[in-house]
Amino acid sequence: MTATATPDAPPAAEPVRKPPLRKPAVRKRLVPYWLLLPGILWLLIFFAAPLIYQASTSVQTGSLEEGFKVTWHFQTYWDALTEYYPHFLRSVLYAATATVLCLLLGYPLAYLIAFRAGRWRNLVMILVIAPFFTSFLIRTLAWKTILADSGPVVGALNSLHLLDVTSYLGITEGQRVLATPLAVVCGLTYNFLPFMILPLYTSLERIDPRLHEAAGDLYARPITTFRRVTFPLSMPGVVAGTLLTFIPAAGDYINAELLGSTDQKMIGNVIQSQFLRVLDYPTAAALSFILMAAILTMVTVYIRKSGTEDLV
Amino acid sequence: MTALTRWIRRNLVVIAGLGTLAYLILPNVVVLIFSFNKPNGRFNYEWQRFSTDAWTDPCGVSDLCGSLSLSLKIAVWATIGATVLGTMIAFALARYRFRARPAVNSLIFLPMAMPEVVMAASLATLFLNMGVDFGFWTILIAHIMFCLSFVVTAVKARVMSMDPRLEQAAQDLYASPAQTFLRVTLPIAAPGIAAGALLSFALSFDDFIITNFNAGSTVTFPMFVWGSAQRGTPVQINVIGTAMFAVAVLCVLVGQLAGARRKRS
Amino acid sequence: MTQPTSGGDVRLDRISKTYGSFAAVHPLDLHIPAGSFFALLGASGCGKTTTLRMIAGLEDPTTGTVQLAGEDITALPPHKRPVNTVFQSYALFPHLDIFENVAFGLRRRGVKSVKKQVEEMLELVQLGDFARRKPQQLSGGQQQRVAVARALINHPRVLLLDEPLGALDLKLRRQMQLELKRIQTEVGITFIHVTHDQEEAMTMADTVAVMNGGRVEQRGAPAELYENPGTTFVANFLGTSNLIEAEITDKSGGDLVLTAAGGKLALPAERCSAPVRTGGKLLVGVRPEKITLAHAEDAGTVPEGRNRITGRIVDSSFIGVSTQYLITTPDCPEITVYEQNIERDARLVPGAEVVLHWNPAHTFGLDAAQDIDAGTELDEEAP
Fold it and tell me: Which range is the signal sequence, renumbered to this chain (chain B) (predicted)?
């Protein structure tokens, strides 16, 4: 914002250019810092400092009994990567699959709420948000019932002989859905779907419906209208939604734990067990440091590529 | 083309959208149905027969209601803490230009772009090395930390969209800066603050990963559910899940109706 | 705080405002007499709103002082000034109903029983039945009246109006102009009105100050500004002017004799704001409605002593009360003429040769060193 071009700008917004003639001007300039102080301190101490502390933990050696010391032992990173790279790859693969599924499933629903729901809009919106209010662990456990070996899903897939196809593709095993990659991805998709729908809806809702009419008027078929007008305009929602889905899905360990077997363990499971069961803090720190770096890199590249840097 | 295929083509989006909606609602329906189940073993995954036992005795499992009230207590305090601190930051960001603004913006954004497990493990490492006892306070500190960013985002959006002339009009009408804040700024920012607070409450109440790392032996409601997935899932979990769902939907509906009535009058 | 019943005069002394290196308002002196209806007129970005906000206390002047009824109020914060503002787009509090909006100022000053006053005020603006509505439920015109009521109930010494009619449609705007004028006459408070609409300024105000580029170009009664503009900006911004480049050839009696468009024109010396020097250049101006058109065949009937130019009609458009003609002449740009539709001469069609003539007393002279087109393009600009 160029302050010079807008003489109507609120005076509070530009405290810098006020002449320091009167004392209150100086005091006024400190106001934002007083407002920021407690919250920012909280974040610095309990968010930023731990991250730095964790980085130092990752290059420590020692044991629980003798204590840990910083020895710049970068070997931990190498060991962690060679031992757990399948978990990293699996995390990225599962999270990416779930994100794409969320986009495919979420877009029609967001579109429905934005343009087609009419007077049902509020009700549908409530139904999207309401599941949030039941503890998501309980809802994830419900998938155990839905996907159970004697349950309706397995029965239906079996009678269509689809389970043979899916197990040939390696996403299910034998006559089971539970404890297979399909179940984990299904759980991830389910859990993070609302995080895709809400930003999509927000950006779709801002689109003037007359733009659809204008596109139709200019000889665009409905599918062309969608490809050339609606979808490009909803890009901010697509980017925000995919980030909000991918990031938590990549670090998740609940779905793999509850719906998967040992063969579906993700990197989150490894960090959790290294930290809370094996008590190997340097390895846990190194793993979560790698995860953080990987995700921040991917997010940055993705935001650059999609050209929506103003999102941040 | 028959009339039916034409109808399907025209309403493809609606059909697909409703399918997604069914996918979203299905687990809640299962939770509801299985709250009336009487399982044979320790696990409530297969339907046996109808029973209202769990509904008549929701606290019948040891520690369940204790963990529930602990979760509520933590959620209330985390909401208050995060809302107060977050609202202050939001006002500073929305109303003032200062040099540290970009840095502050990044610090607010990062927790939302960070996998929970990373924040959880790093904070726990810090507590561990400072020799802090894990429990109520460590959980509360962690919850305020990750709720803060969401409050800032919600309140900032609201304050930014507010016409600065409203505050100038208040001053012009003899309101001192303090009165202007209390009588005009705060009431107009209230929906944003309420949204941030509601989100904080939901996030804190339902949090598992960060709590898992920072709770020690303290058991919140999500921790109880997690533990029961290993030891055996009591039907009462479904009762509480369903009750929460019903209360939430009821609150939203009442709010909607009240809003609609106010608009009409 | 006392409740003054009459307006106070406002005196701006060398007041200026700069943002960084941008001067929004150059040092200016302005005296606004008590009880007057004063308009600050100009295009957007000319500094008129900044000037108003400095009077309200919403903007700190970089230099200079603001005096109200002889008292220096430069250092007073807005909530301590006996001045109220009707904001652009009204700034009604969305969370309060109409009654509470109007009562806001009284309550802040600790007035206990506001009911009677508020109800009276709402009656004055004919909104008595709307007291419990929220601002969003009112139409633009009704919101505007609430904004006026909310300011007036405090009996300010000065009422500041910042483009108060900008958001209304044309018909409603005309109606509200008369309404505001009526209220001002009734309450006798000093009104300072900021607008970019020259018709609005001229209809309502006793005195108009035309601002351009952070400076006051000219101030005076509307008729005086219109009939005798002092700069090309005022001539073009206030209505339409025909400006013709001319050379001073002689002086005879109280008149200057000029050569322009291949003929001789007379200009009363007191209507020339430029330095006069024989052989010097001038811009000579005349308003389109002062000019009479005669067909070339009737050239002989034009009375003696009138300024006359010959030309050819290139375009004519029928407007209703009048017809607008565009006329080219050999040596000067196109001239616009408005003719009342009383007795239309059927020969006055595009292509016809005509004689333009007008009373020399309606001619004005401007300094030729100025931009001849200043103020022409800004007329329709949004606030």
Answer: none
Query: Quick check: is C5 in a domain?
Result: no
Average pLDDT over chain A reads 84
A122 and B247 in contact by Cβ < 8 A? no
Q: Does A223 touch chain B (CB under 8 A)?
A: no
Q: Tens digits of per-residue pLDDT, A202-214?
A: 999 988 888 888 8
Query: What are phi and psi for residue B44, nearest 5 degrees?
Result: -100, 55
The verdict on C348 and C201 lying in the same domain is no
pLDDT over threshold 60, residue A2: no
**B178 to B167, B171, C84, C262, C282: CA distances (angstroms):** 11, 10, 19, 71, 59
Say if residue C128's pLDDT is above 50.
yes
The answer to whether domain A85-206+234-311 has CATH 1.10.132.30 is: no
CA distances from C319 to B185, C348, C356 (A): 50, 15, 20
Structural domain that includes position C169: 10-227
- Which B residues 79-98 touch A at CB under 8 Å? 85-86, 88-89, 91-92, 95-98
Q: How many domains does chain C have?
A: 2
Nearest to C378 by CA among C231, C206, C236, C267: C236
Structural Rg of chain C based on CA atoms: 25
The answer to whether C196 faces chain A, any CB pair under 8 Å, is no
Please indicate, yes or no, whether residues C247 and C343 belong to a single structural domain of this protein. Answer: yes
- Label residue C85 by pLDDT band (50, 70, 90): very high
Q: Averaged over C315-329, what is the pLDDT?
A: 91
Residues paired with A62 in a beta bridge: A68
What pLDDT, in 10s, does the model give residues C264-290? Answer: 888 998 888 888 888 888 899 999 999
Instruction: State residue A6's pLDDT score.
Output: 39
Provide the pLDDT for residue B255.
80
Question: Could you report the per-residue pLDDT of B226-237, keeping only the tens digit for each?
Answer: 999 888 889 999
Q: How many CB pairs under 8 A join A and C?
A: 28
Task: Give tens-digit pLDDT for A40-52.
Answer: 999 999 999 999 9
Residues C317 and C205 in one domain: no
Q: Does C144 touch chain B (CB under 8 A)?
A: no
Alpha-carbon distance values, C282 to C219, C335, C376 (Å): 22, 17, 19
Cβ-Cβ contacts under 8 Å for A138 (sequence gap 6 or more): B31, B225, B237, B238, B240, B241
Question: Cβ(C159)–Cβ(C84) under 8 Å?
Answer: yes
Residues C274 and C205 placed together within one structural domain of the fold: no
pTM: 0.81
- C1, C88, C108 ranked by CB distance to B173: nearest: C108
How far apart are the C-alpha atoms of B75 and B73, rounded to whole Å?
5
Q: Is residue C66 part of a domain?
A: yes
Distance from CA of B124 to the nearest CA of A (A): 8
- Domain parsing of chain A, residue ranges: 85-206+234-311
For residue B39, how far is the Cα from the chain centroid?
A: 31
Mean pLDDT of C64-79: 91
> Final residue of a domain: which of C227, C250, C283?
C227
- Provide the CATH number for the domain around residue C192: 3.40.50.300
pLDDT above 90 as % of chain C: 51
| C147 and C64 fall within a common domain | yes
Judged by DSSP in three states, C312 sits in: strand
Q: Comparing C-alpha atoms, which of A299, A277, A263, A279 is closest to residue A63?
A: A279
**Run of H or E residues at B155:** helix B136-160
CATH of the domain at C277: 2.40.50.100
The pLDDT assigned to C327 comes to 93
Confidence (pLDDT) at A27: 65
With bands split at pLDDT 50, 70 and 90, how would you rate the model's confidence at A221? Answer: confident
Domains in chain B (CATH in brackets) are 1-61+235-265 (no CATH), 62-233 (1.10.3720.10)
Confirm or reject contact between A17 and chain C (CB < 8 A).
yes
